[in-house]
Amino acid sequence: MSSVATPAPVSGRRRRRTKLQRRQSRLAWLLLLPALAVVAFVAIYPLGKTVYQSFTNQEFLAGITPTKWVGLENYRTLWHDTLFRNSVIETVKFTLITVSFEFVLGLVIALVVNSSFKGRGLMRAVMLVPWAIPTVVAAKMWQWMLDDVFGVVNDIGVRTGILSHPHAWISDPATALASVCAVDIWKTTPFVALLLLAGLQVIPRDLYEAADVDGAGPVQQFFRITLPLLRPAILVVLIFRTLDALRVFDVFYVFFGQRPDTQTMAIYNQSTIVGDGHVGYGAAISVAIFLIISLFVVIYVTFVRVTDE
Amino acid sequence: MKHRALLIVAGLVGAGTLAVSLSVAAAGTSRPAAPAKAAAYPAPKVPNAAAIKAKYHGQKITFVGDSVGNGHVRDLALAKRFTKDTGIKVNVVPHPAASDQAYSDLVRNFSQKSSSIDVAMIDVVWPGAFAPYLVDLKPKLGKQSKIHAPGIVAADTVGGKLVAMPWFGDFGLLYYRTDLLTKYGYSKPPTSWSQLFAMAKKIQTGEQKSNPSFYGFVFQGNAYEGLTCNALEWIASAGGGHYIDNGKASINNSKAQTILDAMRAQIGKITPRGVTSYQEDQTEHAFDNGDAAFARNWPYQYGIGATAGSKVKGKFSVAPLPHGANGKSVATVGGWQLAVSKYSKHKDATIEFVRYMTSKPVEKFDAITNSNVPTIPSLAKDKQVYKTNPYLKPATASVARVARPSKFLKTHYNEASKAIFQGINQILNGTPAKSVLPALQSKLNTILKEK
Predict the structure, then answer these.
(1) What is the ipTM for the molecules in this complex?
(2) Is B111 on the interface with A (CB under 8 A)?
(3) A25 and A163 share a domain?
């Protein structure tokens, strides 16, 4: 007969599973099976197919070239591909700039909106408007606003005297990256603020009250209470934003199209597969992007775990 | 609960703002009334409509058509007439404005063997790439193809199969403001690029005093297929070749370098700095809004500028593009064809649609309402056509045509054109030509070697 499970076994000795536990475990697997099947179909199969294609020379308009296995040739070409290298650098630059600005600004906004003031509810609703606009629409909007002939940004800048003459923010290579970063920061800071706000609301008030009693100032409270307790939310925010930023496509595509100096990894990938028709080589690029992004995730998870008290 | 009231207010404010801005956006288009023009000259009736109706009534076909200028409006008018007369429903889908993107869409469609597209507008440089996926139109439309310009029909014939029917022609033109030339003391348009730069500079300096958005010269400088066409005109007119000559890349030469650097020096000086993001629509907007002295564009722009209500009506004309030092004027040949997908489920009904669209009355309709170049030579002499399309006068129409090197590149044309327009866009954005052309030449040679 099955015995009642005993609590807290001695560490180091494996616990023998009871029939009940085995039955529950089987039920758990059965319940998870549909979800796992969907994930396998939607994520694992395409990923596997892409990896397979990266070892072939498949083309879209195949013509007379039969698709055959070419081993690591695509990866060898990729290693020497300066356009790909530049696109990775461009994407990493974009990621570092936007994630840091969004994090700092988002944290400030979250702290402000967390405190009580009149109209706080309205403020919380309004601050989400940029995030709610579809990315392509927001990009198109900003493209018109930043135009050097009839854009409103240049108009205001020249009238108020900040700018001596209209500047081609998007066309000029010197300000191109800055303009696209600005648009992304405008759009995504509310999302960061929202996630951090959720994290802030979980921190119990009495910790702050106790700190007040102990004589700690607001800055000390921030670094000793708020930040440490916010760490899980910060980790989530940073992983989300970094992964999104590394895969950026929409804003760059609307602003720059196929312009060579501002291509991101995702744009270069799409252009190779759909524009040039090189499916095999494009698959190798996709795998490389996947590995680069995984690297960032590993860095984050390791870094945060190491400093956990 | 007082938060709830505030959130409701915020929601209402947001919804109200959205409604107001949408209605402002809908009302605020300042396009001259092209539909009015089309009504004045109606879409021709379909010949032999009764017989077609008897056989194909009720079938639905999808036509991937134009999106530049008023092309979509024209397509809708013709499709409506065709449906009315024959009962064949035509679903008109405008293709992406950038030609290289339209190419990618078709590539994906054909590689999936999809039946979702029956007939598509294809660029003059694509028949070689898409030939294996298109229906041979010679059996049913061979007779009709004989009234079209032989050169274009030859470009549409691949391996003996007529894979597309000529639809309308295209070549680059120099648009110029006749009133401004007179105002600043010029009796005729420029014949060389250096003349154009000087004239544009003088006019711009004078006009910017009253209109700070005025610029001397606008063209298509964005990194897309249109730049390949524009730059071919500069380079070939300066004796710098045609990107690829005799099967080998020829772009890295001193004449090409000189003219490209000369253009680069003008960006932001006689052109808006943002011209490196301009496509056809931005060029046309700038010129037709009165903000440019010179513009390079296709013939379609003529009709829009000449419409009643246009700011430049009666104040502009066209001329051959200028040439480089010791060169001669050229025009890049463009033009669109209609091709039937071999995966279409309604090939015969689709071929009847193509027969209608490429017939003489419809090409005349297109020439008069959209100022597109007819591919039927006898139409160029038609009085009505000539009146609305004065660029068909021999002085402009007989300029030497140069073609993009699609016949050497076949299925790899898009990839090679991308290398070209990306390189030239880089030059225009500030990189000296000598840093870009050698790499571009070797890239083109690599692509030429691909099977």
Answers:
(1) 0.77
(2) yes
(3) no
